[in-house]
Amino acid sequence: MAHTPKMFRLEIGNLTSPKFFEELVGLERATFRKNDSWADGELEQMAKKRNCIIAAARLEDNNKLCGYVLCTSTGLNLHVSKIAVRADCRRQGIARSLMQAVLRTAANQRRSSSSTLHVALDNEPAVQLYRSLGYKEDGLLEDYYTPGRHAYKMICDLEPYKGAAEDSPPPLQAACTTTTGRKR
Ligand SMILES: CC(C)(COP(=O)(O)OP(=O)(O)OC[C@H]1O[C@@H](n2cnc3c(N)ncnc32)[C@H](O)[C@@H]1OP(=O)(O)O)[C@@H](O)C(=O)NCCC(=O)NCCS
């Protein structure tokens, strides 16, 4: 049965405790197929780099990790490498809130002007999520994951995220969420 969190809260930056990495690896393993899951220590290695921006979501009721997004800030671009939300917590606006948090941080604190990512063509939930945040298709990467499993390259202009307040709606779509609550 789906877990229906009344509330979740976001954490961003400074997420380097061993306990956090344990939870992160647990959620990664539960979410991705073996081929798409990063090797042991890879997540931690990346998360500890200075140019990494990471945000996590925790359920208010039990403080358990229910989502994360991991990105790399290079030059003026933010590349989103991984996002996952616990299966029983999906469609609550958690991924959208995580993405908005890192996009605002990149635009305002790292002066990023664009964000890129790669997503499997058949990953409809993820493609729809990214489109709703302002990402557009920017080419096709053939056989990106495995032979026959292609990816879209997507890009988002971060100008609309500059100066955006914490609880402001996503700039390019009608529906909105608070950073610590469900869709309203
Ligand atoms: C993709 C994923 C992160 C979305 O997480 P989520 O918390 O359920 O997403 P949200 O509730 O914030 O949804 C935001 C928007 O994304 C789109 N979306 C999310 N899930 C969707 C689904 N199953 N079908 C269609 N659109 C979907 C919708 O536009 C949604 O807005 P709406 O609810 O107002 O319609 C989650 O499904 C997941 O962890 N998938 C497995 C891992 C993965 O594929 N990661 C991406 C590749 S690295």
UniProtKB/TrEMBL annotation:
Source species, please?
Volvox carteri f. nagariensis
Task: Specify the domain of life of the species encoding this protein.
Answer: Eukaryota
Q: Where is the N-acetyltransferase domain?
A: 10-159
Upper taxonomic lineage = Eukaryota, Viridiplantae, Chlorophyta, core chlorophytes, Chlorophyceae
Enumerate the residue ranges of region (Disordered). Answer: 164-184
Q: What is this protein called?
A: N-acetyltransferase domain-containing protein
Task: Fetch the Gene3D superfamilies from UniProt.
Answer: 3.40.630.30
Q: Where is the composition biased (Polar residues)?
A: 175-184
Entries under PANTHER family matching the protein: ACYL-COA N-ACYLTRANSFERASES (NAT) SUPERFAMILY PROTEIN
Q: Give one GO molecular function term.
A: acyltransferase activity, transferring groups other than amino-acyl groups
